[in-house]
Amino acid sequence: MSLRAEVVAAARDMHRLGLVAASHGNVSAREADAVHITPTALPYEGMSDEDLVTLSLAGEVVAGHREPSSERRVHLAVYAARPDVSAIVHTHSVYATAWSFRGEPLDTGTDELQAAAGGPVRTAAEAPSGSNAIARAAVEALNGRRAALLARHGVIGVGDSPARALDVCAVVERQAQLAWLLGQAR
Ligand code: 13P
Q: How far apart are CA 135 and CA 168, in angstroms?
């Protein structure tokens, strides 16, 4: 499967798994000095790799006929800060997003969360969607981890492929469900 097809597959799986509703969320992957990202506000059913937009690392559109995701600044800032990251998934999954309203880390202390995220998942400072401020806040909250919560907004998961970044988001959602059930017992 091409990298672009992997981006679309992860985006459709994100929707199928219920981690987003409607056209929310976004997925990207880095290939050399370019980033393939899902377009803004396009439903996932029927999305193909021809719908993706390719950006330079500076954010210029270099290929594609659609408008890129409104959260492209978050994706580009994470790639700039984290050479180890090749793919990013952003979801609005319910329990993790609810946890993000608390403004504190998601810290269940399980091996599962450690393996997926590399430790407790921090919550980024609140900032408007699509802004440079949310991009900076996401980078700061990720710092060495593979996941972060965006305050009152959603989840960022990163990895070495779109499927792995999606797995991180799915684990964070399950861990957030546990945290709510247990009152975040450790
Ligand atoms: P896009 O459709 O522009 O990618 O934005 C969806 C979203 O989830 C914003 O946070």
A: 19
- Check 31, 67, 71, 112 and give the catalytic one: 71
Element housing 178 (H / E): helix 162-182
pLDDT confidence band for 184 (50 / 70 / 90): confident
Distance, in Å, from the CA atom of 151 to the CA atom of 182, rounded to the nearest integer, reads 21
Q: Is 71 a catalytic residue?
A: yes
- With a 6 A CB cut-off, is 26 part of the ligand 1 pocket? yes
The length of the chain, given as a count of residues: 186
Query: Taking residues 149-178, what's their average pLDDT?
Result: 98
**Which residues does 9 contact at the CB level (< 8 Å), separation at least 6?**
1, 162, 163
Q: Is any atom of ligand 1 closer than 6 Å to the C-beta of 175?
A: no
Q: What is the DSSP string of 164-175?
A: HHHHHHHHHHHH
Is the pTM higher than 0.85? The answer reads yes
Task: State which ligand 1 atom lies nearest to the alpha carbon of 42.
Answer: 2
